[in-house]
Amino acid sequence: MNTAEFTQKYYTERRGSHSRKWDGQHLKFSRTDLLPLWVADMDFMPPQCIQNAICNYVKAVPLGYTMTNPAYIEAVMSWYKRRHSCTLSADWLTGAPNVITGLMWCIGAFTEPNDAVAVLTPVYGAFDTSANDAQRHIISVPMHRTADNRYTVDYDAFKSAIVKNDVKLFIHCNPYNPVGHVWTDEEMEQLFSICKRHHVLIISDEIHQDLITGPTPFTPALSVSGGAYADNMVAMSSVSKSFNMASLHQAEVIIPNESLRSRYNTYRSHVYHTDSDVIAEAAITAAYTHPNAEAWLNDLLAVVRENYDYMYKELYAALPELRISPMDGTYLAWIDFSTYIKPESMRDVFENQCRIAPSFGEWFGGENYATFVRLNLATSLENIKTTTHSIIRNI
């Protein structure tokens, strides 16, 4: 279906539904009447086949104690092979309630208090808070922004930071939140080879893996250089972004190395005692096996691309000194307003003048990004038009 048909069928009014994005504005903003483009979930219902799978399971099966359904494992393996040309082994798969919890468990399992954990910046703020909450030291390595607003890594600086701080763990984000970069095999080879030489474990958050909206194909970290670094890696993913199911608590944690997997599972058993989330497994199985789900995802990507293209064109026509990063992956626009707005005025301009709730850039790496915002484009084109023209009128 075309983008208008998709929106008409799946867009839903979420205000009043206890949505964090729509009804939780008081958590981050000075007012609650804003158009919210902050929390990274969608304003679209998941495909009907997933809704049916959830309803059918609840109608047919008692919600008693369960074990992991082998069909769920097969579905995950099939999706990785079909969608990403990545072959998994069933025994590599373990889990977590969500990717951030899995990340926190990796920090607990593979590092000690006061160990150093490296990230590239700007980056999703939960990486920092997860490490800080666990009393680990975050080592931030700023990326370079090019003339065309893409981000690249200074590999010498990355290596120096690892050596100087005796880094134990590197948290990788692929595709990259918030800048929308999709990593190439060559880029990851350079990062991962440095990690391997200096005995740094790689954790790859790939929650946006299915949301590819540009020309660069997604390469799983497990596949880099023909799988050369898979033995030094934990990869994580979830359907929460791809099919808008963040409230279903199930993430895939993929650990090829048996010793690492054993350490992770031992730590997990100390902090988490529960059975499988049968509702999540039913939903994921449908998402990864039903052809209508994959068609829904492809249609969604067209909507996100249309929204980005509209915002990009209109904003640049009116505000040509803006710096908007290309969105090759995710459904998130990363925009620098430094030519037009002073850092100390960002909140007033967006909240009180534009009446928009963005994710502010400082949430992704501190004051160096105080003139940036991240805008969630997984909504209706009408909301994107309202946002775009409000920015143009008030800046």
TrEMBL record:
Presence of the UniProt keyword RNA-binding in the record: no
Pfam families, alphabetized: Aminotran_1_2 (PF00155)
Entry's transmembrane regions: none
InterPro entries hit by this protein: Aminotransferase_I/II_large (IPR004839), Class-II_PLP-Dep_Aminotrans (IPR051798), PyrdxlP-dep_Trfase (IPR015424), PyrdxlP-dep_Trfase_major (IPR015421), PyrdxlP-dep_Trfase_small (IPR015422)
Record GO terms (molecular function): cysteine-S-conjugate beta-lyase activity; pyridoxal phosphate binding; transaminase activity
EC annotation from Swiss-Prot or TrEMBL: 4.4.1.13
Domain Aminotransferase class I/classII large as annotated: residue spans: 68-385
Catalytic class of the enzyme: lyase
Keywords noted in UniProt: Aminotransferase, Lyase, Pyridoxal phosphate, Transferase
Necessary cofactors: pyridoxal 5'-phosphate
Domain of life: Bacteria
Family annotation (CDD domains): AAT_like
Family: Belongs to the class-II pyridoxal-phosphate-dependent aminotransferase family. MalY/PatB cystathionine beta-lyase subfamily.
Name of this chain's protein: cysteine-S-conjugate beta-lyase
